[in-house]
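User: Can you recover a sequence for this backbone? Please restate the input before giving your answer.

Assistant: Of course. Working from this structure:
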């Protein structure tokens, strides 16, 4: 079955086992598709890129929450009442 590989660099699992850091560095900051029998098994990404991805996902979740809450009815609150 053909697969789409979402990276410009690939490496075999054997290459990853032999020298993990060289495999990660071969992507020059981008993902490296790790192949098992010429099929993509997983993507190896540098820590900095992973952190960027998590930040982006978090930002999207917050944006969705803001959009959802912006449609709620506003209620007036008197904070002096609780002092």
């Amino acid at each position: 079955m053909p697969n789409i590989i979402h990276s410009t660099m690939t490496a075999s699992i054997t290459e990853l086992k032999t020298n993990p850091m060289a495999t990660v560095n071969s992507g020059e900051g981008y993902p490296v598709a790790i192949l098992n029998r010429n099929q993509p098994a997983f993507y190896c990404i540098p820590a900095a890129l992973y952190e960027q991805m998590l930040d982006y996902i978090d930002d999207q979740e917050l944006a969705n929450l803001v959009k959802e809450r912006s449609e709620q009815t506003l209620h007036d609150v008197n904070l002096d009442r609780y002092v």
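That completes the design. Helices lie at 13-18, 20-26, 47-70.
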